[in-house]
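ingest -> fold -> write
write: protein_1
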Amino acid sequence: MNGIPELKRRYSRADHPIKGIISDLDGVAYRDDSPIPASVQAFRAWYERGVPYAFVTNNSTKSAAQFAAKLSGIGIPATAAQVFNTISAVTGLLQRRWPPGTPVFAIGEQPLLETLEQSGYRLTGTNAEVVVLGFDSELNYAKLRTAIRAALAGATIVATNPDVLTPVHDGYDPCVGVLTAAVAAAVPSATPIVVGKPDPFMIEQALNYLGTRKQETVMIGDQIATDIVAGQSAGLRAILLASDVPFNAVIGVVPDLVISSLLDLVDPPSEQIGFAG
């Protein structure tokens, strides 16, 4: 389990029963387009028992409705209202700091670009005041050059997430953190604003949706630097699902529990973690 020992949770079962679940998506519910069978079983069990859950993801390639459809397609009951991703986090930041009509250069998939346009921002490759960096499967040199030239001209850099790797069915691929590092290396004076985990904003959104108290809610993820830090920053117990996908350790950050399968959380021993019935 990636060298991390099994850890007992910090709170007693009696004082802090688990009444809500917030979970990462890729690497926890599925790997790329392949469902993780044990996770599907666990979420179906929680759904049948009435345990509320929500999802948070740094992935900006799909809308909340598309993520919900993907989850439903692999057997995990989900609606768009249960999914919180970095598209809304980015647009929320822009709306707080830049008026509609602001020229924006964005690297990303269609759902991100469409949402930015629908929010009133003018997508352009010239004279951009803001550069948004998201995951783009068609990233090329021309897009990188445009982003760097805008940064050199003083544009603010906003990245959807800091992840350097994203899990896929046969391993892992480079993610937005690699692109952000390239821009920062070329323009050291441009300090990127990174939304998404480890920032706790989406966790707090999900918690408000669930309506559960912090001490009765857990965050589940497969990355310490994003999922675990975000969960604990939001005041939740954070559970690491260990897998074969490498993660970046963070000094001073220890998961409240390490598991090898979400089924470990279904009817677990009372000394580890407990769900309210």
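write: protein_2
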Amino acid sequence: MTSPPPPSDSVASILAAAQQRAVERGLPYSGAVTPTEAAALLAALPGARLVDVRTRAEWDYVGRVPGSILVEWNTYPECTRNAAFLEQLRDAATNVDAPVLFLCRSGQRSDHAARAARAAGYSHAFNVLEGFEGDKDASGQRGHVNGWRKARLPWVQG
């Protein structure tokens, strides 16, 4: 059996930055990545999974990342915590040793999901900072300051 190749310099630097953010913020999971870093990891690490924890309505009407997996953190329209989250995560991301990157609207629900995943045994759980839509601007609108869409990363709507 051969060992996997060492990570490229860019992947290694992204993982180091993510781990440094985890240390600085006292995160119990592997780290926090920017949307651009998340896209780079997904492209470079074949077993990596992007798990979108927004609601089905957000996924359908706001947009989604092609190839992402939907596992709602909160259910819609009830807006209650999805009691089956971990079960659904295990069905969608079966390898607990592969990188799992969690994405939501702005990085809050995905932080909770990464915490829950790490506690459930996922050894490489990451939060995608800024989320899909990013922070609100001065007018209270998302999508103009930061986030996956603002970074012009691949996404589709409808």
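write: annotation protein_2
The radius of gyration is 15 Å.
Strands lie at 31-33, 49-52, 69-70, 100-103, 125-128.
pipeline exit 0
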